[in-house]
Design goal:
single chain; five-stranded mixed barrel
Length: 192
């Protein structure tokens, strides 16, 4: 298992390859549909330093407030392909080094990962409660009033957050490989 501490350099991310198991530590930012549309359309400057060299996680968390502190109850990944229209541009605009989600992304994002020196990290769906245990602190929450809890941009600190590289900065995509193999099997089944 490779340990990666955010923020991270482009050089370090470019050493990662499809199939590498990566344990994440440090600051990560959660963002889904509303956050990506906001970043893409408005390009807000106030989040540039927050995102530079770090990761955006496609996640709508389940949280509770205890006194004045937010606690993560569940932190499972959201299907990433919904962010395909925005992700490549957001990656470059904010100098991100990684994207986390489930299900992979398309050609536009893969090209941006290669060009910019970033990776797509797969978090395992169905492990939301376990992943929440890796959240050691909530530092901030942005756009809570405007977007609501699942769509807000949560700024969290994680320790030993488990992921797998499924799209790398060298143009490799495990999702494309699996889709190709699945299509061959499907064609054989259909043609009988």
């Amino acid at each position: 298992m490779i340990s990666l501490k955010f923020p991270v350099s482009e050089e370090e991310v470019r050493t990662l390859k499809v199939g590498d198991e990566v344990s994440l530590n440090g600051i990560m930012v959660l963002g889904r549909d509303n956050a990506h549309a906001w970043m893409y359309e408005e390009k807000p400057d106030e989040i540039r330093n927050l995102l530079k060299g770090t990761v955006i996680y496609h996640c709508g968390p389940v949280v509770k407030k205890v006194d004045d502190e937010w606690i993560f109850v569940a932190a499972g990944p959201t299907t990433s392909i919904r962010e395909e229209p925005y992700q490549g541009d957001v990656l470059k605009e904010y100098d991100l080094r990684a994207v986390i989600g489930k299900g992979g992304m398309g050609d536009k994002t893969l090209a941006a990962l290669k060009e910019h020196g970033a990776v797509y990290l797969h978090a395992i769906g169905g492990t939301a409660a376990l992943l929440a245990k890796a959240v050691v602190k909530v530092h901030d929450v942005l756009k809570l009033e405007e977007f609501g809890i699942p769509e807000a941009m949560w700024v969290i600190e994680v320790k030993d957050f488990p992921t797998v590289v499924t799209m790398d900065s060298h143009g490799q995509s495990l999702h494309q490989v699996i889709k190709g193999k699945s299509n061959i099997v499907a064609d054989k089944l259909i043609s009988g």
